[in-house]
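#structure-requests
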Amino acid sequence: MSLSTEETARRRTLAEGAGYDALREGFRWPEAARVNMAEQVCDSWAAREPGRPAILDMRAGGAPEVVSYGALQALSRRVEAWFRGQGVARGDRVGVLLSQSPLCAAAHIAAWRMGAISVPLFKLFKHDALESRLGDSGARVVVSDDEGAAMLAPFGLSVVTETGLPQDGATEPAADAGPEDPAIIIYTSGTTGKPKGALHGHRVLTGHLPGVEMSHDLLGQPGDVLWTPADWAWIGGLFDVLMPGLYLGVPVVAARMPRFETSECLRICQQVSVRNVFFPPTALRMLKSEGAELPGLRSVASGGEPLGAEMLAWGRKAFGVEINEFYGQTECNMVASSCGALFPARPGCIGKPAPGFHIAVIDEDGNETDGEGDVAIRRGAGSMLLEYWQKPQETADKFRGDWLVTGDRGTWEDGYLRFVGREDDVITSAGYRIGPTEIEDCLMTHPAVATVGVVGKPCPLRTELVKAYVVLRPDVEVRASELQAWVKERLATYSYPREIAFLDALPMTVTGKVIRKELKAIAAAERTAEAAGEVS
């Protein structure tokens, strides 16, 4: 075993050869008084193996540029020198408006090394979204590219691109940081109100590792190469892929597509022999709809919404491996996962709790329940936020006693966590509580359906009725009655969509989740119009 392989194995939190129960029982969060993520993901590797590949940069479209840990450290030191020249000090916030690139990684590393707080920003944000996050965080300097600099011009900030960095890097030692010291503010998606900044400490990477390793069947095996089409501006790209890969010494591919395209996805994976992929559900649906196959992968992870039995079965055929579903949110991520290397997947279930996380289904009083309830995580989890940035009341509201309440509803099923739906997405119809996800999964198995969103529509008789908004595949026609029968035949008769509307596209977040809040507003407006017609 080479030194590199030994070091990677030492860094993995989950030991090979142990069963799931043994890993859970034997796991303890590290109690180090000092931790700086810049050292974890870059500086320690650069000191030991500076030539080791860190990032495979595919942005040019040709052969990948191999960026070593030594080169990544040098780039981050140049960013750090610019930060210091701008007067950035410990605790100051710095924006990172970049897509997948070595500079994106280097900017975060530079901020963490000097004790500043990085704020990832998405390149597809428009003016108001940038203004909200920059204003709330108080960031006054931003690392970006030429396109981003133009976007930031109205805000009067100090912006630097790679060509504007100093040639000489900073030389100061890494800040003496502890696990609870602030490191990064990641803003929530904003689908349920104005985005809030989840402030995380330097322990957040350590907190992600058990779940990340589970979702990739013990990530860190010889030959592993990691990629995701998800942007590094979001917690899924940044802490489910980039930073864990760098920590474990697994090369991470930088290849962000302007929009997901199956042919480009296959080219990227084949050209650099990608072995480990995090595919958001939307990407999986597109791959499936185009009949794509991708042999040679060692692990495929997915998260954001449940996939369903039909998608999992397709994944086994298309990839030759199980798709490991994982679960978490910006406030406390990678808390549960499937793991084909440890236990079989169960369709409709998210997986099992990652080592180090105590997940419960609780009632309104904060007591654990065997039935359906609120999915919650006990305080003390490694990836749990410190607070919502400068929002003490919102932070307090997120907790119920010692439990962080996710806003999701779930149940336990033989040790597996089954996702029922968002608390405000659960449909109450004729006394039944109906989760929309199961209906969406069922409709997605119909050959005519490309994507679908299901919500409750106000109904004076039933409280709500189930309504499905469906996008069909190109050049395909189907009657609503056929889709209704499809669900009736596969689920319960009370849960079939009593109304179906066909749309050209669904409202979605930038990470590919259906925005049910907007569909609910459409359904409510329909009911209002119907009621007006009844009165007239």
